[in-house]
């Protein structure tokens, strides 16, 4: 708050002035907004997968989907957690029993063998999931 004296009327008559200067506050808020706009996409880093290009339409989901990623090295990730192939069905069964009934998105690197992605899709089907979508660029 800026306090000062404000001249009123004639010479020598002053009264206190109390005004809030909002310009510095707006400047700070704009700088913070820019920092958060730049930093927010960096906080949502997932598994690096080089997706193949297609001409399919984008899907719009309201909730965060469950993603299963297969990297170029053949590693399998559920969300950001690496899972061994043999542990994939028990892990997904536990997720299904917890009440997850939305679609599962499978992200397969375009440099991985299709056989590896097909086996993951088979495991998803074996776990009882029926809404499976392949993610591409």
From TrEMBL:
User: Mainly resides where?
Assistant: membrane
Q: Does the keyword Transferase apply?
A: no
Per the record, the domain of life is Bacteria
Membrane-spanning regions, if any?
A: 21-43
Q: Which residues form the signal peptide?
A: none
Cellular component terms per the entry's GO annotation: plasma membrane
Q: Name one GO biological process term.
A: cell division
Name of the featured protein: Protein TolR
**What species does this protein belong to?**
Parvularcula marina
Name the gene for this chain: tolR
């Amino acid at each position: 708050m800026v306090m000062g004296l404000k001249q009123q009327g004639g010479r020598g008559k002053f009264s206190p002035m109390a005004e809030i200067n909002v310009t510095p506050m707006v400047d700070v808020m704009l700088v913070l907004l820019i920092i958060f706009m730049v930093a927010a996409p960096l906080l949502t880093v997932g598994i690096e997968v080089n997706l193949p290009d297609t001409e399919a339409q984008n899907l719009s989901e309201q909730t965060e989907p469950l993603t299963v990623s297969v990297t170029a090295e053949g590693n399998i990730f559920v969300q950001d957690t690496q899972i061994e192939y043999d542990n994939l069905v028990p892990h997904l069964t536990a997720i299904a029993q917890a009440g997850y009934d939305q679609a599962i998105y499978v992200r397969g690197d375009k440099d991985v063998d299709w056989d590896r992605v097909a086996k993951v899709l088979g495991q998803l089907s074996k776990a009882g999931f029926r809404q499976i979508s392949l993610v591409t660029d």
